[in-house]
Amino acid sequence: AQSVAQPEDQVNVAEGNPLTVKCTYSVSGNPYLFWYVQYPNRGLQFLLKYITGDNLVKGSYGFEAEFNKSQTSFHLKKPSALVSDSALYFCAVREGTGGFKTIFGAGTRLFVKA
Amino acid sequence: DVKVTQSSRYLVKRTGEKVFLECVQDMDHENMFWYRQDPGLGLRLIYFSYDVKMKEKGDIPEGYSVSREKKERFSLILESASTNQTSMYLCASTGTGELGEQYFGPGTRLTVT
Lengths: 114, 113
What we know:
The complex is a heterodimer.
Chain A: E1 3-5, E2 10-14, E3 19-21, E4 24-26, E5 31-38, E6 44-50, E7 56-58, E8 64-68, E9 73-78, E10 87-95, E11 102-104, E12 108-113
Parallel strand pairs in A: 2-12
Antiparallel strand pairs in A: 1-4, 3-9, 5-6, 5-10, 7-8, 8-9, 10-11, 10-12
Chain B: E1 4-6, E2 10-13, E3 19-25, E4 31-38, E5 42-51, E6 54-57, E7 64-70, E8 73-78, E9 87-94, E10 103-104, E11 108-112
């Protein structure tokens, strides 16, 4: 069965510092991995995805994520955090041959302090 | 840009009422989804549909039903609302092919009293 773990409920970082939001996954086949962001009172917005190819994927708003197959991780990173990055971040996984069903993590709330 | 709209942003209903939540997408997507979002639990799939009049149960279908009479519209129905259905409901869509990300509506915050 597919599963996603976001081990941190909350991440606090100072503006200008690098940020990392962690995600680990479990699937039986090849994973399709996604990050979404949710701003207050809004729906989820797609940030980036890994399907195949380069393990480092770049997405919207300067975010990137690194796929690590041996550690079954897909951590979200940004070199320099902005206050406006404060939001709820969701990692999601879909099994490569499993159709459209996507499993979402519980979410990590990011606070960026000025 | 893909646009997914939901009929209400906030809704307050009484226990036992029948509740309709509607979702419309404008990108001719085949696949549409209904999730509920609860703190600490992330998003849980209620139902999804991969074609008109087709539906599949997700992880938590109990107490819900869906309708998809037209490609662009996917409705979630709470037959008899209960207080444990108080939640944020999110609709999403995606096109044919397994590689695509989902596009989400703004959500409906439903309160059942």
